[in-house]
Amino acid sequence: MSGEAMLVFDDGLTAYDFGHGHPMSPVRVDLTLRLARALNVLDQLKVVPAPVADDALLGTVHTADYIAAVKRAGDDPDVPDLAHGLGTDDTYCFRGMHEASAHIVGATVEAARAVWQGDVVHAANIAGGLHHAMPAAASGFCVYNDPAVAIQWLLDHGAERVAYVDVDVHHGDGVQAVFYHDPRVLTVSLHESPTTLFPGTGTAGETGGPGAEGTAVNIPLPPGTGDAGWLRAFHAIVPDVVRAFRPDVLVTQHGCDSHVEDPLAHLTKTVDGQRAAYAALHDLAHEVCGGKWVATGGGGYAIIEVVPRAWTHLLAIVAGHPIPPATAVPESWREEVQIRFARIAPARMTDGREATYADWSTGYNPDTWLDRSIKATRDVSFPLLGLDPTY
């Protein structure tokens, strides 16, 4: 990588906190930063504080009524607003919710601004990636949709085409919904099948609205898909569609809840497979858009075993200095985990797996759900982008 890389972060981003017992604990962000610091990853990044998005910026994606509802819910968390998705079993209300959520949006937009204006080549906000939020409703732990606001900011400031790739185990439904009718934005999501996991969307047939056909690409994966299958699906589809779209900038969401130890889903990836995906997206950004890459976090609920290692790998790749998988986890970090949580942390930055896969060119196997799913996406999406679905 040539050029500087940036992390947008300050401690205020951990105020996005639904409270004790909620799966989306800000501890996962805190532990990631502590591990990245212990491995000297932060020394390779320009670290800047995050601004708070104002109502005008939020309003480029979210409705005024919804922004007002979030403010009310944050002022009085005991009064739910189910019409706006606030106070549900997933998305609790908490005091200061508007400010905390707007802070995350500000961080991702600052990352996008820095990349687009050439301050840095890559930028990341690991507290971001809240991809389920809709223009007028919260959903799936997500209040404001920071990737969507950042993409809209890029469009409003001169980007002609933006590609968004989402590797969270859950479908990136909110970002897709915002841009479903906009031919300037390609949304690509690899996720567990909507027949087995929230939010129940993201079939291969969701390809974009009238005038934007082909700009939504969905790759639903069968439960149990591990590194080899996931990477087979990724490489069979994602590089080709992104190349065909020719984006000016690549925005990615890196939920690491596809891991086998994640408690909320059913894929079986390892940290090694996740690291391979991050590296592939880094390389794709350099191939198609001069390295302009904005990376966010996302889901991930194995907050000790998985998230800190996965996102530390992500930050190291963003910085241009990948961590070798066999690297030992610093004892200082492991001791802190044991003291704070009475848990034994992983000893190495690897799960001991080789991130290998069989390329799609090796042949299609119609007897497997995975290959049928890959083929369905290729068959419906590739022609819309001027691609041949066959090899």
TrEMBL record:
Give the GO terms filed under biological process for this record: acetoin catabolic process; epigenetic regulation of gene expression
Extract the GO molecular function terms from the UniProt entry: histone deacetylase activity
SUPFAM superfamilies in the record: Arginase/deacetylase (SSF52768)
- Histone deacetylase domain spans which residues? 22-316
Alphabetical list of Pfam families matching this protein? Hist_deacetyl
Query: What are the UniProt keywords, alphabetically?
Result: Acetoin catabolism
Pathway the protein acts in: Ketone degradation; acetoin degradation
The cross-references to InterPro entries, in alphabetical order and at most eight, read: AcuC, HDACs, His_deacetylse_dom, His_deacetylse_dom_sf, Ureohydrolase_dom_sf
Q: Which PANTHER family match?
A: HISTONE DEACETYLASE HDAC1 (PTHR10625:SF10), HISTONE DEACETYLASE HDAC1-RELATED (PTHR10625)
The record's family statement is: Belongs to the histone deacetylase family.
This one is known as Acetoin utilization protein AcuC
* Organism in which the protein naturally occurs: Kribbella flavida (strain DSM 17836 / JCM 10339 / NBRC 14399)
